[in-house]
Structures are given as C-alpha cells and as structure tokens.
Specification:
Blueprint lengths: L22 E4 L3 H13 L5 E4 L11 E4 L2 E4 L8 H7 L5 E3 L3 E9 L2 E8 L2 H11 L4 H18 L8 H10 L1 H5 L5 H7 L5 H7 L15 H13 L2 E3 L5 H12 L3 E3 L4 E7 L2 E7 L6
Parallel strand pairs: 1-2, 2-9
Antiparallel strand pairs: 3-4, 5-8, 6-7, 10-11
Helix pairs in contact: 1-10, 3-4, 4-9, 7-9
Length: 282
C-alpha cells in the first residue's frame, strides 16, 4: 500500500448547511479560491461559500497518485508573490533557476526538444541560437515584448479616473495591442518559421485558446512573468490550492465538496441563488 500523502486530502467540507450567504463561488480551483480569499481580505465580515464538484480543491492545479507514482498537472506558477503576500498566504515556494521549461514538439518525422531558460535575455539568446536564420526577428520581438510587459506592469488593477487618462501616455504599446491577437503579433515581426512559431505559441496555453484568439497582451505577460520569476511548491503542486483552501476556511469561509451546481437562479439580471444536484431546493 502506498504511503504517499497528498495535501489536498487534508481539506474536508466544512459546509454548515446555511441557506444564505453574501457570496457563493462556483468551483474551488485557483480562481475560485483566490476570489474567496480576496473577498475575505476586503470584506472580512462576509459569509462566503465555495461549492466544488470534486472531492478536493485545486481544479486543474493538482497532483494524483497512481500505482505508487505521483503525477502533477502543473509545471510552474508565474510570479505570484505579490498576490500571495497580499492575501496572507504562507507557503514556501521554490523559484526556478536555469531551465524553467522543457518543451517537446512531436511530429511524424520525430520529436524536437527545447529547454527554455529563465530570464528574458537568456530566452532571447537561446532562441537566436536555435533559430540563427531568424535571430534578427527574434531580437526585435523579444525587445518589443519586454517593453510591452514593462508598460503593462505600470498599470493599476484598481485605477482612478485620472489614472485612466494617463494610460495612453504610460502604456502606449498596451493601448496599441488591446485588440491584437498573439498570432497577429508574431505576424507583425515576420515570425513565419513554422518551428519557431510553434515554440513561441507555447505561451498561448496560459490563455486556453488558439494563438489566433489569444490576446497578445495576456500571452506576452504570461511568457515574461513566467521566465522572469516562476515557482513551484517544494512538495507536490496540490500543496498550493490546499494551503489556499485551509486559509479560506481558517478565516471563516465554507467549502462544500462533492457538490455540483446544476442551475444558477436569476432574479431579473442578478444571480440570487444556486441549485445543487441532489438538493431539494436552492
């Protein structure tokens, strides 16, 4: 019998059975847990319930054991230190150094393996070494991307009207790319080498949509925040959502596991309740 103990198994439902909450969150993935913790941070007296259909929190960020081996669904976290500090999450993370990602590209004629290094300049030089015929294009794309990301970081998540007026001057590249897909950004810099293009499109996976639909800003941000500072737990990846869930419950939040929301009930245009499968009423 395996002695592997995953942290996610320590999180249990603590649903009280109340029929009224200030906020109900559907899904205990990273987004749902983050929302709950941010809500508690800003409205600590609120009653918050997270409903999760699986037996554990975490969503796609998890680990599971099979035949004595542990499999992880996640490879890295982009720089999350600012948000973890803000919500007060205490979890020791390990920062990637050297190569932060191994990318395997499989085709009928073989497998291409790339080892992507941490650091924007390191990645630029690595790509130029792998694709010397495109070195000039790569340099221009990476320099532009770095500048775009730098401007993006200047913007405030919650800005005043005055801040909004300054955006075109503080972040002109952000404004210019608001409606630009990542595929269009690659086109702009003449990235037409199929192998190079396929490798660069790795980062659209953060958006969960194809390059022709992925935001150039989101993809660039995901790429540069990943290669600048990326992390993983010292243990398995399920430690991260488990720590978030434990903190949420410690602060008075409730989690109901193995409960699937089948209907969101509206009062006019506002969501007022949910119907959970198997429950008699909302």
């Amino acid at each position: 019998m395996s002695d592997i103990k995953l942290k996610k198994t320590e999180i249990k439902s603590n649903w009280s059975g109340k029929d009224s909450y200030d906020l109900i969150i559907i899904g205990a993935g990273i987004s749902g847990l983050t929302t709950g913790l941010l809500w508690q941070k800003n409205l600590p007296e609120s009653k918050v319930l997270i409903i999760e259909k699986e037996p554990y929190p975490g969503g796609y960020v998890t680990a599971y054991e099979k035949d004595g081996y542990v499999f992880e669904t996640t490879q890295l976290f982009p720089d999350v230190i600012a948000i973890t500090d803000y919500i007060g999450l205490e979890l020791d993370l390990k920062q990637y150094e050297g190569n932060f990602m191994r990318r395997l590209v499989v085709h009928d004629d073989g497998i291409m393996e790339y080892h992507l290094p941490a650091g924007a300049e390191n990645l630029k030089h690595y790509l130029q070494e792998q694709f010397p015929e495109d070195a000039g294009k790569i340099g221009k794309l990476m320099n532009y991307s770095t500048n775009l990301f730098s401007q993006l970081r200047k913007l405030k998540a919650i800005s005043t009207f005055k801040d909004k007026l300054a955006i075109p001057f503080l972040a002109p590249k952000v404004v210019a790319n608001l409606n630009t897909t990542y595929a269009q950004l690659l086109d702009k810099f003449g990235i037409d080498n199929p192998k190079l293009r396929e490798l660069m499109e790795t980062f659209t996976s953060f958006a969960g949509v194809p390059p022709g639909k992925a935001s150039s800003i989101l993809t660039t941000g995901a790429m540069l925040s990943s290669i600048s500072r990326c992390f993983r737990p010292h243990g398995y990846f399920d430690e991260f959502p488990a720590a978030m869930a434990a903190l949420f419950q410690k602060r008075g939040g409730e989690i109901r596991l193995k409960a699937e929301v089948e209907t969101i009930i509206l009062d006019g245009k506002n969501a007022s309740a949910v119907k959970v499968a198997g429950d008699e009423g909302p």
